[in-house]
Specification:
The radius of gyration is 21 Å and the shape is elongated. Helix content is 71%, strand content 0%. It has five helices and no strands.
């Protein structure tokens, strides 16, 4: 485990103390949780950005964000990123499935 030292604003310090009290957790635990959440959100943002720019596949983006493939598709939909599968693609796939029966 590594150690990080950082100066923060008085307002942020007060907010952290408030969270400590409400969560009944010590300061280090609160900061670890907040930092982990921020890193998770940053990774997702970065992965969505890479998809949007066409630099990576959904599977690679999912790995980058620490998500499953399905979760990444879900996040892309929430971010209004096309998954490259149109209604016409689905209709064609359904036709093929019906023909195979």
């Amino acid at each position: 485990m590594g150690t990080i030292t950082a100066r923060i604003s008085q307002e942020l310090f007060k907010d952290i103390k408030k969270i400590e009290k409400e969560e009944a957790a010590d300061r280090a635990e609160v900061i670890r949780r907040l930092l982990a959440d921020a890193v998770k959100r940053w990774k997702l943002k970065k992965a969505l950005e890479m998809i949007r720019e066409g630099r990576v596949t959904f599977r690679t983006a999912a790995k980058t964000a620490g998500l499953t493939y399905i979760e990444m598709l879900d996040e892309a939909e929430k971010a209004s990123i096309s998954i490259g599968y149109a209604l016409s693609d689905l209709q064609q796939d359904l036709k093929i499935i019906k023909q195979e029966k």
